[in-house]
Specification:
Layout lengths: L1 H20 L10 H7 L12 E6 L7 E4 L5 E2 L8 E2 L5 H14 L8 E7 L4 E6 L5 E4 L4 E2 H7 L10 E9 L5 E9 H6 L8 E2 L4 E4 L3 E7 L5 E6 L4 E2 H7 L10 E7 L6 E7 H5 L7 E2 L4 E4 L9 H8 L9 E4 L3
């Protein structure tokens, strides 16, 4: 019994000594414990305007959240000079802050923890033919497909390419915006994984609408037709999309195409009957072309009348969509 009592007393004494050797919990105040509890964002380099949490062990008066300035600096109490934070990882900034506190004789051997409370320096913007254009902060591993998903996916009239613009050094080492074209089909098919770019923040993702052709005149369904998936269109395809001729039409038709200068349109006459009879090759149509089929009388409407009827230059109604052969 005596031996058992001595053993119990020995264990109790050892537990008391161990408890005394454990570090005391962080003091409350100035967000010392709150910062550690709330901040749990994925690690990335600190940037201008980010909100960071600085926790100094056993020094609640120095623990706080602080906003990085537009110049990349932070200021801490009792530290004489600003501390440059932009471009550093949190672990690197911890060492810089600890050295500053020791160098200014604020603390002898400071223990510093830095965490990210809010990112504002890593925006990713998705605009164009997406269901919900969005700007969000890159945190952790973000890919191009992730960004498209954040915008709730592509619309039905999305074009065949996605433009990803990001800042990168040019040949002289100066920052410049560089654009990369990503084929939509290749990205979504997932065959080439390199197309699913890794995004770091600062990218602008633009999804252009597909090109449109316009068909008007003696057809059953006039209107605008989107050409998706990079497919090519032609006079015969345009006639099929417009559900064919409404009646016996003129033997000739006209394509109105924007001039190379971007001002005005040029008129291109085509032999419609010969094309339909397979006696002349089909004629390719470019995005923005107007295919006009006059009536059998041959009376022509003015270009201005055609553009007005199609709503070109004003708000267009819902356009039909032409999907190319996959």
């Amino acid at each position: 019994m005596r031996r058992m009592a001595f053993a119990i007393l020995a264990l109790a004494a050892a537990a008391a000594v161990s408890a005394q050797q454990e570090p005391a919990p962080l003091h409350e105040g100035a967000g010392a414990t709150t910062i550690s509890d709330v901040s749990n964002l994925p690690m990335a380099r600190i940037g201008n305007n980010d909100l960071i949490g600085v926790t100094v062990y056993d020094a609640p008066e120095l623990s706080r959240t602080v906003r990085v300035s537009s110049g990349g600096d932070i200021w801490l109490p009792m530290v004489k000079q600003p501390i440059h934070a932009a471009g550093l990882y949190p672990a690197d900034l911890e060492k810089v802050i600890a050295a500053a506190l020791a160098g200014d004789h604020v603390l002898v051997d400071p223990v510093v923890t830095v965490s990210i409370v809010e990112y504002r320096s890593h925006p990713i913007t998705v605009v164009g033919a997406v269901k919900m254009p969005v700007t969000f902060q890159a945190a952790g591993n973000v890919t191009l497909l992730d960004a498209i998903s954040r915008a709730q996916g592509l619309t039905d009239n999305a074009g065949s390419e996605i433009l990803v613009s990001r800042q990168a050094p040019d040949a002289d080492g100066k920052p410049a915006m560089l654009a990369q074209r990503i084929p939509v089909r290749g990205l979504l098919d997932g065959v080439n994984l390199s197309l699913n770019l890794s995004l770091q923040g600062g990218e602008v993702i633009r999804v252009p609408e597909a090109g449109r052709i316009f068909v008007v005149g003696d057809v059953k369904k006039s209107g605008a037709f989107y050409i998706t998936d990079g497919s090519e269109s032609s006079v015969l395809k345009a006639l099929a999309l417009s559900e064919g001729l409404d009646s016996f039409s003129s033997h000739k038709a006209y394509i109105y195409r924007t001039e190379d200068s971007g001002e005005g349109r040029k008129e291109i006459p085509i032999e419609l009957k010969k094309i339909m009879d397979r006696k002349a090759p089909d004629v390719a149509l470019a995005a923005g072309d107007i295919l006009y089929i006059p009536s059998a009388t041959g009376a022509k409407a003015s270009l201005k009348t055609l553009e007005t009827s199609l709503g070109i230059g004003t708000a267009l109604g819902a356009a039909f969509i032409y999907y190319g052969t996959r």
